[in-house]
Design brief:
Oligomer: single chain
Helix content: under 10%
Mean pLDDT: 93
CATH class: Mainly Beta
Number of helices: 1
Order of helices and strands: EEEEEEEEEEEEEEEEEEEEEEEEEEH
Cofactor: Fe cation
Pfam family, one: Pirin
Family: Belongs to the pirin family.
Organism: Asanoa ferruginea
Keywords: Iron, Metal-binding
CATH superfamily: Jelly Rolls
């Protein structure tokens, strides 16, 4: 491995191991942010990946994220352990548990809260990811989906669950708006697999639990392995067992501005969204949460920069 984390194997693009960094989320939760990063802002339309836990929340509040707004994106919540109660301004009230999918599509605007129920399991562990919406979808009405059962298969000690998109013969019922993939891979000790990948997709892998060898690179929790595009296979093995999450998609070519909880196309759109959250317009009201909504942070005095998927300013 070179000093920049890149590994090139014969006939394959270089993979890059990107370390995450810790970010406080609310009063009680710290997450490991894996996307966006300076070297890699997106993988397909995936523009944001936070990994949390495993955290001991026995006798503690657990996750407590007050009502806050979103626009221009989808949120994907995936749990390994624990429970999260979702409320939103559409009136949705849904508890998510491990191996289930909460998919919230903000469209033009939605608000939601996320909290551990008063009686909750002792561990909290999972992912929250964002998907950037393309132009034709980002102005549509908001919606919420809960999928308690997702397609999965167990082959040679590897259980594959497709969360969004399709992999092999498995297709998720979740509705997305660009060619996309999100899948959990649970490897038993000693398991190995060769994943068939789409050459027109780019991919990344993270570990939720355990260590795995991915084409000669060791992957452990806390980092994101960018596999690049042009691949048709990924060879994965784990001696002690591992739980991995695969993200992928067709490269997203629309330029974006990301600030706070908004994904937009210009500085002006971000400022308008912030103003409308502060004034109580556009995003609706989350009812039933025992606390105040999150105020928006102050905007920078300079214009927010529009960037392409590589991080280049436009």
């Amino acid at each position: 491995m070179s000093t920049d984390g890149a590994v090139a194997l014969a006939g394959l693009p270089a993979s890059v191991l990107l370390p995450g960094h810790d970010v406080p989320l609310g009063r009680y939760t710290t997450v490991r942010r894996l996307l966006p990063q300076r070297p890699r802002r997106m993988i397909g339309a995936w523009c944001f990946v936070d990994q949390f836990g495993p955290d001991d929340v026995l006798g503690r509040p657990g996750m407590q994220v007050p009502p806050h707004p979103h626009t221009g994106l989808q949120t994907v919540t995936w749990l390994v352990a624990g429970e999260v109660l979702h409320r939103d301004s559409l009136g949705s009230l849904q508890t998510i548990r491990p191996a289930q999918l909460n998919l919230m599509t903000s469209g033009h605007g939605i608000a939601h809260s996320e909290e551990s129920p008063a009686e909750h399991p002792p561990l909290m562990h999972g992912l929250q990811l964002w998907v950037a919406l393309p132009e034709e979808a980002r102005h549509q009405p908001a919606r919420f989906e809960h999928h308690p059962v997702l397609p999965s298969a167990d082959i040679a000690g590897v259980t594959t669950t497709v969360v969004v998109g399709e992999l092999g013969d498995l297709t998720s019922p979740a509705r997305v708006h660009t060619p996309l993939l999100g899948a959990e891979l649970l490897l038993e000790p000693g398991a190995r697999t060769s994943l068939a990948l789409r050459k027109d997709f780019e991919y990344g892998l993270l570990s939720l639990d355990g260590a795995a060898d991915v084409g000669g690179t060791e992957l452990t929790p806390g980092g994101l392995l960018y596999l690049g595009a042009e691949r048709t296979t990924a060879n994965i093995a784990s001696e002690q067992g591992a739980r991995l999450f695969l993200v992928g998609g067709e490269p997203f070519e629309e330029p974006l501005v990301m600030w706070w909880n908004f994904v937009a196309r210009s500085d002006e759109e971000i400022r308008q969204a912030r103003e409308e959250w502060a004034s109580g317009d556009r995003f609706g009201t989350v009812r039933g949460y025992a606390g105040e909504a999150l105020p928006a942070p102050a905007l920078p005095t300079t214009r927010l920069k529009v960037r392409d998927r590589h991080g280049n300013t436009l």
